[in-house]
Specification:
7-stranded mixed β-sheet; alpha/beta
């Protein structure tokens, strides 16, 4: 088992290994003396893992457990779902001495974290991510959010979990499409910071190194978040490919999931930056090969002008500029602040 410590104002631990779900109660018991705990999950994860988590909690003295289950999918990551979670927490008399557990993938983690951060002005919560994407990315770093019709993650908070348990054995139940979504985020981490990681995830024997891959991704994110918790500087590097990805998700009415949109976004932005002479020739092809390894798409048949207009609603924009993440080479990236008109030309001309 690997352990990563995140050193912020309130530090917390991330555990990475096998069979952590069945020992979750032991790890969580050290966080609170309260016997009451609330679990939030989705209908797919509940069927697979909820009973096992509840059993572990009961073995460790949590004798008042309540669970809220919502329908899986990005369409549930809304203020309406958050409101239903608030009502659920209030109905079960959850107080600030109790804990909330987010059991599931990125949507569960995001909306549960958002609800925990705002109910009673802040409840402590634990992340138990069940997908590769959530384990390497969304469960770590304290970003919580819900979507609006006008864009993704437009309402949210920074609220760090008290503990993250990354049980690698849970990934064995993932379908290839869901696993591929997480692989896109691993490719992102390798592309912006770690060439060896990039080569590892693209290799034929990546499954033999899965714990190391997850550990390296989490360490990269930990290091960046410790320097820039509130996303005003270096943390923006983690958004490589994401500005376009969020636009692609929105334009597809979320029929294209996050990981696949990120794959397309990374390839598109690198194609444009190569055409502009910023990124060396070959980087786009390397990204395409890595994405193809997992059956991830690298193009979409969307109007570029329409995608740009959606991008301009992105959180990473100020009045006159938008921050874009570009590769210097595989394993090294930088933040480029572009004027709005320059960004429009950069995408529309560079991605033709």
């Amino acid at each position: 088992m690997n352990q990563v410590k995140v050193q912020l104002k309130e530090s917390y631990t991330i555990l990475i290994g096998d069979d952590l779900l069945d020992h979750a109660g032991e790890h969580i018991r050290g966080l609170t003396s309260s016997p009451r705990i609330a679990i939030v999950t989705d209908d797919i994860v509940a069927e697979l893992y909820l009973q096992r988590l509840e059993n572990s909690l009961r073995k460790n003295g949590f004798d008042s457990i309540c669970s809220y289950v919502f329908e899986n999918g990005e369409h549930s990551k809304t203020l309406e779902t958050a409101g239903k979670i608030y009502d659920f927490l209030a109905k079960h008399n959850i107080t600030r001495s109790d804990l909330v557990i987010a059991l599931g993938g990125g949507v569960v983690g995001d909306v549960t974290g958002f609800a925990a951060s705002t109910f009673l002005r802040g409840l402590r919560y634990v992340q138990i991510p069940t997908t590769l994407l959530a384990q390497v990315d969304s469960s770590v770093g304290g970003k919580t959010a819900v979507d609006l019709s006008s864009g993704k993650n437009l309402v949210g908070t920074f609220w760090q979990p008290s503990l993250v348990l990354c049980d690698i054995s849970l990934l064995s139940t993932l379908g290839s499409d869901i696993f591929a979504d997480g692989a896109a985020e691993v490719i992102k981490y390798g592309a912006i910071r770690d060439k060896e990681l990039f080569e590892m995830i693209a290799s034929s024997d990546y499954a033999e190194h899965l714990e190391e891959i997850i550990h390296r991704c989490i360490c990269i994110k930990r290091d960046i978040v410790q320097m820039d918790e509130f996303d005003t500087g270096e943390r923006m590097l983690l958004n490589f490919g994401h500005t376009l990805a969020h636009a692609i998700e929105n334009h597809s009415n979320y029929s294209i999931p996050h990981g696949k949109a990120v794959a397309v976004g990374m390839v598109m932005i690198t194609k444009a930056s190569t055409k502009a002479g910023i990124t060396p020739v070959g980087a786009t092809e390397a990204l395409e090969r890595a994405c193809n390894r997992f059956g991830l798409p690298t193009t979409v048949d969307f109007d570029l002008n329409q995608l740009v207009e959606i991008c301009l609603n992105d959180k990473k924009r100020d009045n006159m500029h938008i921050n874009v993440i570009l590769l210097n080479q595989i394993g090294d990236a930088h933040i480029c602040k572009m004027q709005i008109d320059d960004f429009r030309n950069f995408i529309c001309e560079g991605c033709k």
